[in-house]
Amino acid sequence: xxxxxxxxxxxxxxxxxxxxxIARPEIPLAIALFVVVVGGWELAVRALDVSALVVxxxxxxxxxxxxxxxxxxxTYHFGVTAYETLAGFAVGAGLGLVLGxxxxxxxxxxxxxxxxxxxxQTIPKVxxxxxxxxxxxxxxxxxxxxxxxxxxxxxxxxxxxxxxxxPADQIELLRAFTATRWQIFRMARVPHALPYIFAGLNxxxxxxxx
Length: 210
Hints:
Helix content is about 75%, strand content about 0%. By secondary structure, the protein is an all-alpha fold. The N and C termini lie far apart (about 85 Å).
């Protein structure tokens, strides 16, 4: 005898219409808000006869932006700023990583060098920036050095904290197996320090733009 198993088929849920899936109310609202703000800004400046030196109208801003783009002035200066930022970040973060590694590993370096580093960090960079300009000129060198000093300390501090964050039992285990200082540094301290180091580099990168 043939048996047939009846299966219950549930009706599929009605899918949303394409128009409903595509419609996102926040997009037209954001566009409308932008149009209202910019339009109100333009009308207010022209109606109140505000000087363009005080509050320029959006049309003047757009015209100046277009002129800078077609003349390649923005492209050139963007390249200069990017070079100064990246070079200063590389120098400052590199020195911070190297000195942070030395300070965390050698007590003599920490007691000798670290107090001066902290004292230098307490000096506002705005106060010493004119000195760098006088010493190194108005070119890229002074700006790269200023950027490096700003990016230096976040990388240094996070490197020191990260390299000292390795679990003590793991370090003692490696010492029990006669691991050298370099092996402990490479296999225990550096892996645990990576989250701290990258957090310091993240802050240094953000500060470098300043």
